[in-house]
Amino acid sequence: MVGYGIQSMLKDGHKHLSGLDEAVLKNIGAGRELSAITRTSLGPNGMNKMVINHLDKLFITNDAATIVNELEVQHPAAKLLVLAARAQQEEIGDGANLTISFAGELLEKAEELIRMGLHPSEIIIGYTKAINKTLEILDDLVEKGSENMDVRNREEVVLRMKSAVASKQFGQEDVLCPLVADACIQVCPQNPGNFNVDNVRVAKLVGGGLHNSSVVRGMVLKNDAVGSIKKVEKVKVAVFAGGVDTSATETKGTVLIHSAEQLENYAKTEEAKVEELIKSVADSGAKVIVSGAAVGDMALHFCERYKLMVLKVSSKFELRRFCRTTGAIALLKLSRPNVDELGYADYVSVEEIGGARVCFMPSCFHE
């Protein structure tokens, strides 16, 4: 049966709303519901939310940007608030919760005005006047000196950072702000607009407290060195993304062995090949080998013989940061690196913090 009017134009299952009660007030209701979800997470004493996304992954967070990104919001009016929160997060990096909560309050007051008999266009005119007045007042609230502030001035940066940090960790801002400022100033390029957030990393270690936190100029790996050598100074570093193992000597062929003597000779040949490769790395001047995959027992034995410190970095992202820190170039297979492919570190040492052994590489940030 063919419908008439708007029914004939839209597909089955459509919803058609019109008028104040049906369309406008239902849209306002959707926005208020989303605002109510995030509002209780606002501020330093806000509560955490447990969110399960479409992949059944569990999030426990009070960050509104994470909450709205993981929620599958389908209502078109509520989606506008989600887009506003995302824009705020991308532009400023903070204030997503305030954006949604404030929008919810504006919608709630607008609903009261609509029920009094005002037309939505009249309410919009009023809100536009309020925006213009707010922009005038905001200029007076800017902290003096912010327009031409030196982002490398630690005291100035800490002063302007406190309110943002206090909104997440109330009472700890005096401890955290100097640490954040020091870390960011150390990696700040000549043009602050090119600042790379990925250059500042947080290594979380169980066993201490917030007051034990410190800033390390360089890099910290949350694992122990593979071999027995735990400390070296002023060294060149070779990075192998494909791992340091006997697989480097394998070929795609078939070896037919008739006797135990032939098997022994084959094993010796493989052993000699591994030693040759490790010796070539040592002869290049490298004192530290970083592996992006497995480290074989035979290869480790020869690394110990030639006094090479061996580190294993499983994450490819961490390996990329390591190369950026030391100035090394990651090689795909175990071979003798060229001089320009080696990185440099002032010193690399393994230290124990809170029961965990971690690898420090301070003062080696590669400009």
UniProtKB/TrEMBL annotation:
Gene Ontology terms: cellular component: cytoplasm
Superkingdom assignment: Eukaryota
Cell compartment(s), UniProt: Cytoplasm
Keyword vocabulary terms for this entry: ATP-binding, Chaperone, Cytoplasm, Nucleotide-binding
Keyword RNA-binding in record: no
InterPro entries: Chap_CCT_theta (IPR012721), Chaperone_TCP-1 (IPR017998), Chaperonin_TCP-1_CS (IPR002194), Cpn60/GroEL/TCP-1 (IPR002423), GroEL-like_apical_dom_sf (IPR027409), GROEL-like_equatorial_sf (IPR027413), TCP-1-like_intermed_sf (IPR027410)
Primary location recorded for the protein, binned into one broad class: cytoplasm
Molecular function via GO: ATP binding; ATP hydrolysis activity; ATP-dependent protein folding chaperone; unfolded protein binding
Keyword Nucleotide-binding: yes
Pfam families in alphabetical order: Cpn60_TCP1
Family: Belongs to the TCP-1 chaperonin family.
Name recorded for this polypeptide: CCT-theta
Organism: Aegilops tauschii subsp. strangulata (Goatgrass)
High-level lineage: Eukaryota, Viridiplantae, Streptophyta, Embryophyta, Tracheophyta
